[in-house]
Amino acid sequence: MNNQPFHIVLIEPEIPPNTGNVARLCAATGTVLHLVGKLGFSISDKHLKRAGLDYWEAVQLYRWRHFSDLLAAFPDRRVWLTSKRAEQNYANADFQPGDLLVFGKETEGLSEELLATPGGRTIRIPIFSPLVRSLNLSTAAGIVLYEALRRTGQLDG
User: Fold this and answer.
1) Structural domain boundaries of the chain?
2) Is the pTM for the entire model greater than 0.90?
3) Is 112 helix (H, G, I), strand (E, B) or coil?
4) For residues 53, 156, 87 and 38, what is the CA-based torsion angle, rounded to 10 degrees?
5) Beta bridge mates, 32
6) CATH placement of domain 7-151
7) What is the pLDDT of residues 67-81, one digit of tens each?
């Protein structure tokens, strides 16, 4: 089994508790966390810290000004872009250890420009009610990450 960690990438997250919850998820699973672009909060925000509890020391965290900078630093990584407009269901994705799992900002998701990332694969989490536009960012990250871990045999221990 390949022991490379997965990478969760948050593009311009806006809500501190969501990012804090994702950080806790990353700490619990050994997943690398990347924050890209302008954040809707300060990295020292008390709500961000509270949501991550005392797990921040266990998070491998990277900050990037642009998504292209991250891609240049990890050129051999496969990129999974989440979007409610994607056709492929996340449960059918052929995840591999080391993949980048990319999530957009809470109010807008990923831009069309990012969804057109060369070599990127788009996936969606099905939502069955027409009354619900999207899932919470930290919930979506947890769903996709744990499926990636399951599909790569990393939950078999």
Assistant:
1) 7-151
2) yes
3) helix
4) 20
5) 7
6) 3.40.1280.10
7) 999 999 999 999 999
